[in-house]
Amino acid sequence: xxxxxEGVPDPTGGPHLNHPDGPGNVRALGFSAKQIxxxxxxxxxxxALSAERNIERLLEMIVEEAREFTDADGGALYIMSDDETExxxxxxxxxxxxxxxxxxGGKITWKPVRLKKPDGSPNHENVSAHVALTGxxxxxxxxxxxxxxxxxxxxxFDTQTGYRSKSMLVVPMKNHENDIIGxxxxxxxxxxxxxxxxxxxxxxxxxxxxxxxxxAVALSNNRLIHNLEVLIESFIRAIATAIDxxxxxxxxxxxxxxxxTMTIARKINDATDGPYADVRFSDDQMKELQTxxxxxxxxxxxxxxxxxxxxxxxxxxxxxxxxxxxxFEVCGLQARLRRLNKDADLESMAxxxxxxxxxxxxxxxxxxxxxxxxxxxxxxxxxxxxxxxxGRTWKLxxxxxxxxxxxxxxxxxxxxxxxSAKERDIIQNHAAMTYKILSQLPFPKKMxxxxxxxxxxxxxxxxxxxxxxxxxxxxPLQPRILALxxxxxxxxxxxxxxxxxKTLPDALHILTMMVKDGHIxxxxxxxxxxxxxxxxxxxxxxxxxxxxxxx
Length: 551
Description:
Layout lengths: L32 H19 L3 H16 L1 E9 L5 E9 L4 E4 L10 E2 L12 H8 L3 E3 L11 H10 L6 E7 L5 E11 L6 E2 L3 H45 L6 H18 L12 H12 L10 H4 L12 H20 L5 H6 L5 H17 L6 H11 L2 E4 L2 E4 L3 H7 L8 H18 L11 H6 L21 H16 L11 H13 L5 H9 L2 H9 L10
Antiparallel strand pairs: 1-2, 1-7, 2-3, 2-4, 5-6, 6-7, 7-8, 9-10
């Protein structure tokens, strides 16, 4: 023997209930075995209620446990409306009639109980409304003989179903701030043999009030957690919308990437063969991945708009091609004036053959305008021609100035696209900034990988991605999914300023090349095509001309 008294163990894990050091030494206080069982059951119920996260299941559990606890045949749970003007049916159960409504069984369409009469006075005629208004428990031995309340609805129900409502216990559910958040109603307590309906005893009432209190706290906590999750998710989507709206050319990008990411993840969960047959993302992992997808571009809040929106090579706050247009016009005008001016500077005339200069300038400006678009890859010859044109001069404030500045030459000679190497670094830095921003947020344990996943959407299996150069050995499946979704969306996006969206076949061809290059996960890409995700996406998001199958 270890010196402990024999008896019922305390389900909280502390001393035995009848141990001298136990809570009140219940045996010494005269608690019966049944009462001890009830106390133990009540504690177990409290634990179960606290652990349940599904709010519909929690509501069912409250009524089920209360009925079992009191041997009640029926029970109902009302929830206070947000505006606190009515009680809404959440759960209705009756064992003998085999009625189970609400919760996971579907929404109840019964009319709610109003807390005020049509004239605006408090509705104390309805027993559940009275309990919600006063916060006091009502224990009725027989509703057919009770006074003070209107039980016409109950009697009508009995007439329609052949049921006989008798004893009723109606208990308020108060949260930690003592606010009424609901009402628990139990019907027809039964004796131990369940052979007859009896009144709810004082002990049952006391225990039910305790249960209602625990249930109210559990329900409040559940609601609080749910509301916080909704708030966080809404805030995340608001931030994503702000990022998209920062640029008129990327509106909807984050949403589309998030949708694609989750579509791929769900297909992985559904896989019954192949490399993903044994892969299953839990609900928490799916939520974590979704959050990472919505936040993958949050680092772009630090990226200048003039870089994000750079539609042409000479674009800054405005497109500097217009400055070139003006210079070329002035240069042509100056050449014309020199021809007309008999006193023209002879050295200047020797430097420029003014005859036929204007058509040449127009053609050269046209060439620079096309180069500025960035739609065509610049060859060595084209780049040399830019430098040749840059050698021309024009007169500004009496001084000869080069027709193109060094920065304009540098930008016009961008080999492909519209971004210079420096600007590309600025763009790519958004991934590092995504991690820097998100890593400062106190994500809960089940979402601790959000910063890593979000920041890795430009990493590649071959290790040549950014910002960290992670390779296949260090890239989890989640960021690989996000990377595929991001690339596919970027290739097919029809709202980019610097190019038209690729057709579906062209986009899939480019992705095939990226797979061969070790950039995209081959197994993911195979699943992507097998499940016809691109086709489904095209029907929703792409123009008909981008998807030949839709034409």
